[in-house]
Amino acid sequence: MKAIVLAGGYATRLWPVTKQRPKMLLPIGDSTVIDRILQDLETDDRITDIFVSTNERFAEDFRDHLSASSYDKVDLTIEETTEEDEKFGVVGALAQLVDREGLGDEDLLVVAGDNLISFDIADFLDQFESHDDPTLAAYDVGSLEKAKSYGLIETDGDEVVDFQEKPANPKSTLVSIACYAFPAESIRFDEYLSGGNNPDEPGWFIQWLVENGPVRSFTFDEAWYDIGTPESYLEAVAWELEGETLVAEDADVENTTLGENVHILSGAEVVNSSLDNTVVFPNATIIDADIRNSIIDKDTHIESLDLAGALIGAHTQLTNGN
Predict the structure, then answer these.
(1) By the 8 A CB rule, do 282 and 266 touch?
(2) Which of 33, 110, 138, 255 is 20 to 30 A from 289 (CA-CA)?
(3) How far apart are the first and last CA of the chain?
(4) b/e map 192-221, b = 16+ CB within 10 Å
């Protein structure tokens, strides 16, 4: 089996923090979003090759990250885009990737690189192998409003009997989470696209598969975070830290109160401040400040301010004007 990890998005809802870095490399505890997935895939003997699919803008970031890692199976594959409006759509990009890398003769696992999933991918693949039908991971988001943003599924046992991509009036809260396994004969992206079908979200392709044969679901109850907004990123960090703090050894924290779920990265300086549910990136400086539910990017200087729900880009200087 081959694996594709989708990492080509531009994460505009997380700008400015993700304007110059891929969101898949955002820290989650001692790891990153994408490394949690790659580590699982790397250790599964059924996976022979892993392709991280990204765009031209972030290719160098991933090259640097992967060259500093010890992965044996991971290769980078580049979609020829540099801006959001140049994208081919996920299904379109997958079709091009399959052709570009000569895939399609073996089973294929496709997983979104911004998914923080708590289940073991090995268990997901076990379920896939038990039927050898297209299989998707499914999660109950617990909210009809949230369900509108995803592919809604209806199941009979573990068989998907109905799939609706981003329904306006969802009837349930069980959704697909962009983790799919396809037997080789179901890698039909070209056939799907040649029929004039939607090239954007993979859910449209899954909906088409459901209409043309059996599709299975792997439903899990553990945590899942779709890291696309500041709120979901901080929720994922909080899940990983479990109310604790994580402070880099070379960070300087003096006379400061650290509440729950605070991550302070390398070289940061925090003095005479109070932090809660906040991530402070490398070499940021925070003095005489009260910061809650915020993301403070690298090389930023914040002094004598109270901030809540802030998203501060790199190299920013913020003071109260005194």
Answers:
(1) yes
(2) 33
(3) 61
(4) bbeeeebbbbbbbbbbbbbeeeebbbbebe
CA distance 77 to 69: 17
Q: Which of 41, 106, 50, 48 is nearest to 74 (CA)?
A: 50
Cα 298–chain centre separation: 21
What does the block give as tokens for 256?
Answer: 């400061």
How many angstroms separate the CA atoms of 116 and 136, rounded?
15
Structure confidence by residue, pLDDT tens digits, 128-143: 999 989 999 999 999 9
Residues 319/23, Cβ–Cβ less than 8 Å = no
Q: What is the pLDDT of residues 6-27, one digit of tens each?
A: 998 777 888 988 888 899 999 9
The DSSP letter of residue 62 is H
pTM of the model: 0.91
- What pLDDT was estimated at residue 90? 84
Is the pLDDT confidence value at 38 over 80?
yes
Structure tokens at 124: 């997901």
DSSP 3-state assignment of 87?
Answer: coil
Distance in angstroms (rounded) separating the CA atoms of residues 308 and 297: 15
Instruction: Return the DSSP state at 213.
Output: S
Contact status, residue 51 vs residue 2, Cβ threshold 8 Å: yes
> Above 70 in pLDDT, residue 88?
no
φ/ψ (deg, to 5) at 144: -65, -35
Those residues whose C-beta lies under 8 Å from the C-beta of residue 68, and which sit 6 or more positions away, are none
Residue 193 CA to residue 198 CA, distance in Å, equals: 7
